[in-house]
Hints:
It contains 8 helices and 6 strands; from the N terminus they run ααββββαβαβαααα. By secondary structure, it is of the alpha+beta class. α6 packs across α8.
Amino acid sequence: MFADDVFSSIHNSSDSEAGCAHMQQDLGNNQALADKWQSLHREKPGDLIEIFRSGFQHWAIYVGDGEVIHLTEGGGSAELSLRFSSATLIAVVKREPLSKVAGNDDYRINNSSDEKWDPLPVDQIIGAAKKWVGKTVKYKVTTANCEHFVNGLRYGKKVSFQVEKMLEAVVAGSAAGGGAITGSAFGPIGTIVGGAIGAMVGVIAAPVRR
């Protein structure tokens, strides 16, 4: 009887009702976050995987069974050393577990360019990606990086939006030779791209000596 009275008093309490409503809202919010997280991590073959490194994003393409194919250096899963990225290097295409490639970094599915371009058929994407595994390719951060590679596979468009954003910012904000300063706001890759563009802007803007 006592238990029934206690339950009744709690159930009928306005404070308790407010608390329950708040709890339900929290549960709803948590569920929404959980659903969003799952939607960003429920990989399907052909999905582009964006991995958040310090100062830049690494890209891979999901091929099923927990594995991705990506453009990387020959010695391991790490990306090509950024201090050399202003030059043309030789990279290798690898097929590795997503967990190994991502490591402790956050990642998400990012097929946002589907709004702009129609993705190629999944079988075609996966087939083309697998044919690249083990091959060496030329790598250059501004024209042939890991994002160019995966966009080429999914859409047939070799573009890198992180490079394009940096180029736009550097060109808009650069004075003669000042590109590296503007680009540095985008991390290591930004400094490399910014320095190169800043140098070009400096040459173009320099007065002609007569």
